[in-house]
Amino acid sequence: MRIELENNDKMARAAKRARASRLLVQVLAFRNYRVTNLKSGTVYVVTFSVEGARRFGSCECKANANNLLCLHIAAAAARHLVAAAEIAAAQTAAAPAPLMAREQDNSILIKPSAAAPAKYRGVEL
Fold first, then answer.
1. What would the pLDDT profile of 16-37 be if each residue is shown by its tens digit?
2. CA-based Rg of the chain, rounded to a whole angstrom?
């Protein structure tokens, strides 16, 4: 079941539950994540999609099947924001900065991380 993602109380509560749990979030592909509960060993796949300005998340868990925003989606959403920022930084670093920006202040240049953006590590939340 797809759940529309919004910045609201439901997402805040799901994020709070995710932080209280021992979850490992791993990137399978952009917008596709594996969320493992380190206490129970259960594994769920979370997928994100975009339609126009609307964003959606889906998970294999029972809560999501009952049309509820689950902690797995909230945890994967946090990791997704990091992945998107890493990709944006790598793309920005690949394009040369305008000469004026380089002359004025080198601190505005975004440098790529040591690891390639495609090689994501799991992030425990």
1. 999 999 999 999 998 999 999 9
2. 17
